[in-house]
Design brief:
Length: 254
């Protein structure tokens, strides 16, 4: 029996902490017939999908469960055979998540499409470490850039961002860290603070802090790896300032 109303809802799962998932996301999972989920999705969220077939379509370290074309085909086939497909993606599906592409493919195949935004790791992960992306006097804007483009090259935008006074957040950039720091050095930013946060907002969260000049050594010492977010800018200092204020208060109080 063909399904009368095949539908795709692309849902952002947020940065990792299950409490940062949206109510709208929960409702989508509760009425899903099939859920296709990624590697960076907290598996606890799948407990909301009580009536759904669960299919892992993620990739880990170059190991692909499914290629993107196969995921597209699966979305269409399952929507037509089962009904409501939820595509659950880490962070926000429209921030380097290919959510827009999947919706286009689905719409072209006659599926109804919807999106549920998620809290992007680019904002939430620095926030959990008390790093504000904007702060009066320190940063008037921020860039969120992918470290690796479709052609596996470093994004040209990183060079432009390095020339600005903005906070720069780089996702999927660990393999390009040496190239990134080189671009910031060329812009005279060798002393700019840098934070690298691994597994942000989860129980496994770890952080390394340094400057453009020292951060690669910090990464080696702490053995930080993916999935990590790189934050470059004066706002990184806010974290230490806050810690110092808390220590001072604890020591002296009122």
């Amino acid at each position: 029996m063909p399904i009368n109303n095949p539908k795709l809802t692309v849902v952002g799962a947020g940065p990792g902490d299950v409490e940062l998932f949206t109510l709208k996301g929960i409702r989508a999972l509760e009425c899903a017939d099939v859920v296709l989920y990624d590697a960076l999705v907290n598996p606890e969220l799948l407990e909301y999908a009580t009536n759904a077939e669960l299919i892992f379509v993620g990739k880990r370290k170059g190991c692909y469960a499914y290629q993107q074309e196969q995921i597209n085909d699966l979305i269409i086939a399952r929507a037509k055979s089962h009904g409501h497909v939820v595509r659950l993606k880490g962070g926000d599906p429209f921030i380097f998540g290919r959510g827009a592409e999947e919706m286009q493919v689905a719409a072209a195949a006659g599926l109804e499409v919807a999106v549920v935004p998620g809290i992007s790791s680019s904002l939430a992960v620095p926030a959990y470490q008390n790093i504000p992306l904007t702060k009066r006097g320190s940063s008037e804007s921020f860039w969120v850039i992918t470290g690796t483009t479709k052609a596996h090259k470093i994004s040209n935008d990183i060079k432009l961002a390095a020339q600005s006074s903005a906070t720069v957040v780089i996702l999927m950039g660990m393999s390009k860290l040496a190239e990134i720091t080189a671009l910031f050095r060329e812009s005279g930013k060798k002393d700019t603070p840098v934070a690298i946060i691994q597994d942000g907002t989860t129980s496994k969260e770890r952080i390394g802090v340094g400057t453009v000049d020292t951060i690669e050594t910090v990464v080696q010492e702490l053995k930080l790896t993916n999935p990590s977010i790189i934050v470059i800018g004066e706002v990184v200092k806010h974290r230490e300032q806050l810690l110092n204020l808390q220590v001072e208060y604890a020591q002296h109080g009122h």
